[in-house]
Amino acid sequence: MNLKAWGLSLSPNMAANFQVNLDNCLAEICKINYTVPNEGSVFNIVAVPQIASEVAVENPAILASYSAPTMPAVGRDLFGIHAPADWFSDVKSGTEGPTDPATIPTVPVGYVRMWDTETTWRDLEPTKGTFVWRKLSKQIETAQVLNAKVMMVLGGTPAWAGNGSAADNPKNIADWSAYVRAVACKYGPAISSYEIWNEANLQTFYTGTPAQMADLTAAAFKEIRACNPNALVVAANTTSRATGSFGTFFPAYLEELKTRNWPADAYSVHSYPTASGGADDRIRGVAQFRTMLALSGAPFTTVFDSETNYGLAGLGEGKIDITGDKAMALLSRSYIDSVRYGFGSTFWYVWTKSPDPKFGIQLTPANTDEQQAWRQTYDWLIGAQLQRCATPKDGLVVCQFSKGAENFSLVWYGDASDASPAFTPSKGYFGPLGSNCQTLRGADCAGILNGTAPLGFMPVRISGAPSAAAVAIPASISMTPEGVAVGLNQTTTLTVTVLDGAGKPVFDQEVRATATGSARFEGGNTVKNGRTNAQGQLTLSVTRVGANAAQVGTITVVPDTGAASLKATSTLSAPTGIVLKTAVVFAVSQGTVTGTAPAFAGSSIELVVSSPAGVFMQRRFTVSVDADGNFKKNVLPVRPGFTVYAIDNPSTPTKSNTLIFR
């Protein structure tokens, strides 16, 4: 499994587990009812940036400097689109009018995919051997006006070639080969790539078997190579949303392609997330797609995202309309993430003259916000070379690029689908990355660099000469809770907070912690060093140890910079009550009870032993508590099922927990 090549992070054990599940799925389970959830985390799959050294983990070092480019320059091909052209057409006279300008995108594009353009096999060859080329020719002409490449989707069976449905597998593969040959030979280099079938994993579009689809792929590959050897042959695409067909059809199709020596130059996915999902959810779908390719052993090659948008109804959710900042951020993130995760092209669905009711984000002549996000992202990315992407803190993503002699970073916090609060960095936090800040709307965002404005899910561009990072000096340190009751060998957490003189969190501050008395850190250590997060906080896990149930533990923390008097303490004390730990029958009618009562060290308490309900018997036993607050008492008669609790004074008792003898 070439997991690394496909941009995946998956442990060996988890990879084996995934393969077992996949094999089982293909053998029997999936044939009944199987669902691959839209969460790569089910198998601990993480889609990572193409830069092998930058797995998506917290890495504050990316804020310190730039590095060398690791990817080729981004080309216009990245920005693909669907744009069904509309024009006046009179079949009888052969008149083909000019394309309606409103159906021609006014944003810069490099690739146009032919779908929902009346250019399927069913449209082009309605009668066997008789071709109608005018619509395909007009759509290609429109793409050429945009100076864009063309991807043609081949599938969609004519009624005469199947059983009446466009989703049928052709009855005679020779009919399919003749059709593909006719298209490839007629249009030659005017078509840059051919996608075998649209969403072949869904029976809405294809009802044949994976083996039959692999046969169609191999046949088309042969015909396209003969007439247009420079065109890419793209395997039938799959959706990445949570459908059983993704878990059954696509991996089986890949296995069939493998037996035919991989007759495809590229692979494609439709990365629509769930209606409420955002850009991060889209990437989780990409993780699934890449995982299937890696597990099948597919050669590493070009991948396309040949349809994407957000807010689509399905999987139990209704359609969600997305506008304004959220729409701008999701559109921009789609293309930035496509660079980040190594896609050759991403095709936005769809540019239309008027809104399309199926999609959450509209791209029409009237949608100026979305057009602005497209143009700004295009300007940022075209000609740029990716250096690396990393996460300095949870939710914050920094992607660094080179463009000529200039370095710049695209930065955002959270996702448009999250309710996460924005992140307000301290002044100089992004200083080494540059001194200029630009938003998707083209506005200045110097406040983010100066620590006076928040960074949210809208990507911003930081560039220019580095500015000196402001050094945050700790002015206060606190720890909560200041005191906590903890039983022996029990663990609790303490939160350390470091603030500067303005009351703002101090990020990445080294803190030294020491444990005395009965307090210990992990592994029994008495010393622990840590660094604060972006909220200026550090979490400590501490345990109260020892044989003395009454002994107090103390945690002391100090920052490694700031005034020498800065420190905070927290105490770990014993619970004030009585705690029974064990109640065990060890011989016929004999048992032992153990527990702690630190508040009663050196005195005595009473145990109350009762028989099960219905056979009432109750006996009391006096037990001495030692100087360390511990006690142990043998009692009789007892049997399994008897209960016991402890009290300190029969008239005004402090009652312990109740245990059942085992």
From TrEMBL:
This is Unannotated protein. It holds the Pfam family Cellulase. GO terms for molecular function: hydrolase activity, hydrolyzing O-glycosyl compounds. Residues 133-276 form the Glycoside hydrolase family domain. It comes from freshwater metagenome. GO terms for biological process: polysaccharide catabolic process. InterPro entries: GH, Glyco_hydro_5, Glycosyl_Hydrolase_39, Ig-like_fold, Invasin/intimin_cell_adhesion. Keywords: Glycosidase, Hydrolase. The keyword Hydrolase applies.
